[in-house]
Amino acid sequence: MSRLAQTAGLTDVQREILSTVRDFVDKEIIPVATQLEHRDEYPTEIVEGLKELGLFGLMIPEEYGGLGESLLTYALCVEEIARGWMSVSGIINTHFIVAYMLKQHGTREQKDTFLPRMALGEVRGAFSMSEPALGSDVSAITSKGVRDGEEYVLNGQKMWLTNGGTSTLVAVLCRSDEGHPEGTAPHRSMTTFLVEKEAGFGEVRPGLTIPGKIDKMGYKGVDTTELVMDGLRIPANRVLGGTTGRGFYQMMDGVEVGRVNVAARGCGVAQRAFELGVSYAQQRHTFGKPIAQHQAIQFKLAEMATKVEAAHAMMVNAARKKDSGERNDLEAGMAKYLASEYCKEVVEDAFRIHGGYGFSKEYEIERLYREAPMLLIGEGTAEIQKMIIGRRLLEEYRFQG
User: Fold this and answer.
1) Active-site residues: which are they?
2) Residue 394 predicted with pLDDT over 60
């Protein structure tokens, strides 16, 4: 039997890329991931390796120095990387979303300025939408950008910024009332600003502060921060796309792609949990035989493998739909919802198979058990995904009475 989560219809180039990434994960990530995670240490050497592989430019067009690959290729690479250590996939995800938003919505000058350096990993991207009191209600954004001559002045506090310290380019969503009179729908008065900054913490440019890392239960190594703007001035030509009022749609386009990414992360973590569970079940003996020979454990393994396969299939479907140019919010929502929920369940079953040893930091499954919950929240909770799915289904199956 072949390994789980195989993808039919890949080109030779795609298979070669995935083989290279998988080999890198097995040799350079898995052996050090748990140690680095326990120290909450940024994986500098791993990131440099990803840069050498060209993964920071995987979906950036060739004319800008990237590889020009599809979302499917990218998602399958993310699945492999998350199988090694989910935090590493987070490092490239927000970079990729900003590059995607620039490719789809940026002006020619913005593309020429940023995309070639992003492809090399010299400019590292992050995007910032959430705020401390925001949650899932994007329309409640209070951060604001006000025009002042040839500049905008930005004020506000953003939250849950992945790559907040290590990034040098942040796509920030703010309210901008210019040209949008009072009473305009909230989502029509939002603008995405491209904010350049120095890497690091503290005041990284006048008016912009990145406080220290937020201490998290899991998803360690990658820096998650706040972003505080206090009279931050940026040139007017750093409005994404050159026109205000389009930020909500630009961000949602990026988040759609991000949901495919989170689904891929869920698939990767679940696949690793299955590998750990099935391996341990064949080594651990009870009542005179390996626990894998007990029917109760075989049932668990069967359920786990089925969930890995189902989540992978939905993730691939969502990526291919986006690559085709079609609307994929339904498929992306379903994939993100299913993959994150199944990931949690597969990790927990692998944890149970390990018994008391699963509670020990010496075993890799302990790390996965703390990482999986982040996927239930990132890029929209299960409840948000269900709202999106339900609304789209009602559009498709409108009652004709």
Assistant:
1) 379
2) yes
